[in-house]
Sequence to fold (181 residues):
Amino acid sequence: MPAIKAFNTCMTPFWLQHQAELYHFLLAKTADPDKAADLLQELFLKARANAETFCEMDYPLSWLYRAARNLLIDEHRLGKTFVEIPAELTREDTGDEPVSLLAPCLPETLQALPADTAWLIEQCDISRRPQQEIADELNLTLSALKSRLLRARLSLKEKLVELCGIEADETSPVCCHKKMH
Fold:
């Protein structure tokens, strides 16, 4: 109880001095007098919950403004409403994604690449071997291997465009392609 008495002693004049200022701050952010009053009350309760340290703070007004901003953020998050998307706007499952349809094209495209480029892509991207392990095997630094891998992926992309007729759209890196037979 001594902490509460000390809090009341230091907080009462401080709160009376800054209450209107804090209310107007909250009102400006919410544009709703009732909501601002509720948040002001929550702010006071938050300060009271920290009664043991509040009066010892160097900048209690700054603390109150920070707490008020946090209350506004919490209020905003809780107030979000979610709208159900109408069924006619949802994307229908069109079966296989275009990237998975590239599977028949990939082996032929890899064969069209230089052997070392194809090997690197097979080891890193298809077999998922750790890059450090491959770098050690090739006596390269990890950075050098990553540079080679980036160049190899760019070469693969160019060959996929050339041989499979890949096109991109805004929703996917691959939207459609001609099938190889």
